[in-house]
Amino acid sequence: MESRKDIVTATDLHREFRTPDGKLQVLKGLSLTVKKGEMISITGESGVGKSTLLHLLGGLDKPTKGEVLIDGENLSNKSQDVLARFRNDWVGFIFQFHYLLEDFDALENVMMPLMVAGRSKSEARRKGELLLEQVGLSGRASHLPRQLSGGEQQRVAVARALANEPEIVLADEPSGNLDIGTGGRLHDLLFELNEKNSTAFIIATHNRELAAGCHRELEIVDGKIKS
Ligand SMILES: Nc1ncnc2c1ncn2[C@@H]1O[C@H](COP(=O)(O)OP(=O)(O)O)[C@@H](O)[C@H]1O
Ligand SMILES: [Mg+2]
User: Fold this and answer.
1) pTM beyond 0.90, yes or no
2) CATH of the domain at 190
3) 164, 114 Cβ separation under 8 angstroms
4) 64 is in which domain, residue-wise?
5) Closest ligand 1 atom number to CA of residue 172
6) Residue 227 Cβ < 6 Å to ligand 1
7) Could you list the mean pLDDT of each consecutive 10-residue stretch along the chain, which spans 227 residues?
8) Of 69, 94, 106, 134, which has the highest C-beta tally within 10 A?
């Protein structure tokens, strides 16, 4: 990859949780850098801290120690309000479960982050239709989530994550809930979107095909990136 700028810089991240049994140290000084447009997989055993890391990188949670910079901006200095706006503009999330709004159709779900960002309804609709086309769902715009298959629901979630053209998409086991064939098609879609939009993807996954298809594969072992 040519000398692109760093879009995510995490330095010495620590995250511990208080539990009834005492403190649980999950991340223990984890550092990583992701360049603009890079596609990175995060692997590691269940419970090793992959989701914890993604939450910190997306500003959904704060580290016990250490910092996250997104395009040079330190997330820890931001108020909850500013952080929420920042997330909506800069970061797209894809989870194992789609978390689509059940009472809104596919198109409306994709329009939602655009409306939150203050776009007009007609503009959001235009963009939403384009995004559904990109993920191969033009014919499903008016379907409610429950009227879609698992793979289609996840494609809508992908379109929604890309709505505000974020610099970074964080995906937490995006194909964890899909059968092999459907998962494989989702992976191809993610590779294609990464190439087309030069959006950085950071993907926690157990799937070998997806991990191996990324530009870099990082493994978490004992709270840090394995070197
Ligand atoms: N809010 C929380 N409170 C207490 N423990 C937590 C919390 N979130 C995660 N954990 C624990 O931290 C560890 C890492 O969790 P997680 O990041 O979800 O792992 P992974 O995504 O790699 O499977 C697990 O042992 C989990 O039980
Ligand atoms: Mg997880």
Assistant:
1) yes
2) 3.40.50.300
3) yes
4) 6-225
5) 21
6) no
7) 83 97 97 97 98 96 96 91 90 93 98 95 98 95 97 96 96 95 94 94 97 97 96
8) 106
